[in-house]
Amino acid sequence: MRPESEDVRRRFAEEARADRPDLATLCLLVGAEADPALGEAGIDAAQTELDRLAGLLPFGVLGARAWAVALAELLGERCGFEGSPTEYQRLDSSLLPVVLRRRRGLPILLSVVWIEVARRAGAPVYGVALPGHFVVGFGDPGERVLADPFGGGRLLTGTDAELLVTGTTGEALVPAMLAPADPLDVVLRVLNNIRAWAAPRPERTDVSLWAVELSLLLPSHPARLRYDRAQLLVQRGEFRRGAAEMDEYARVVEAVEPSTAEAIRRKARAARAMLN
Asked: Its domain of life (predicted)?
């Protein structure tokens, strides 16, 4: 691992375990892992841009709807932050430093921009992790106003939100889906999107691997990520390390899923056989 990556990961792990993890910092560190040339100067420049955008919001805004409208006018209309279907084919649509520069990105990254700009201005803002389409919310549950940064800040009615969910997943909208998203859950979802981008691109197992490894640094993550990492190591020709991690994961799951554990051990043996 290159030295700059070690520093990024150390800072990422420290921030993820802070009492109040900073969403912008974590997303910018993901960007630094993807692009070593970003460096400290690039991270500072991105934070400065978020501060600058927040300073452009009007003073004295009151009420959830007024905040949502103010953000839509600034970020959606004046600055041109929005999404398009082609963004799903780009890795940099998941990287906050690039999204700030291009003003294009996936719904969750555009929502991060909205959240961080609005938070700096004192708005009652939070992320809303709707299945299949991330949006932002303003105000408390009784006053809640939803906006879609991917759509340039379009305000969403309850029917709009329900259509977003059913249109992308086929699920019905339930109240729990509208709960404020935890920053660490947002970061994990960003990393999952990066892995989804890399998965059909076998030449980019490097991206899959660092996205998994950052996910493993979060204090709470799916245990299966350890197995995913082991598989990636084998894909990349690191058969001995991958097999060792498969065996370790098999020990973890054996108590509850003995048949799964044995299947994983078979894969570990197959990986070691590739060394011969």
From this structure: Bacteria
Structure tokens at 218: 């979060």
Token readout for 206 is 């490097």
Q: Higher pLDDT residue, 256 or 54?
A: 54
Query: Which residues does 168 contact at the CB level (< 8 Å), separation at least 6?
Result: 131, 132, 133
Confidence at 171, pLDDT banded by 50, 70, 90? confident
CA distance 116 to 50: 7
- CB-based contact 160:144 (threshold 8 Å): no
CB neighbours of 87 closer than 8 A, spacing ≥ 6?
93, 104, 105, 106
As beta bridge partners, residue 138 has 125, 145
Q: Which residues of 194-226 are buried (b: 16+ CB within 10 A; e: fewer)?
A: bbebbeeeeeebebbbbbbbbbbbbeebeeebb
Q: How confident is the model at residue 259 (pLDDT cuts 50, 70, 90)?
A: very high
Residues found in the chain: 276
Long-range contacts of residues 20-23, Cβ cutoff 8 Å, at least 24 apart:
21/183, 21/184, 21/187, 22/183, 23/112, 23/115, 23/116, 23/183, 23/186, 23/187
- Alpha carbon distance 141, 66 (integer Å): 16
For residues 96 and 98, give the distance between their C-alpha atoms in angstroms, rounded to a whole number.
5
- Token representation of residue 94: 């998941």
Reduced 3-state DSSP string for 35-91: CCCCHHHHHHHHHHHHHHHHHCCCCCCCCHHHHHHHHHHHHHHHCCCECCHHHHHCH
Given a cut of 80, whether residue 49 has pLDDT beyond it is: yes
State the amino acid at position 170 in one-letter form: G
DSSP 129: -
Supply the pTM of this predicted model. 0.93
Contact between 39 and 11 under an 8 Å Cβ cutoff? The reply is no
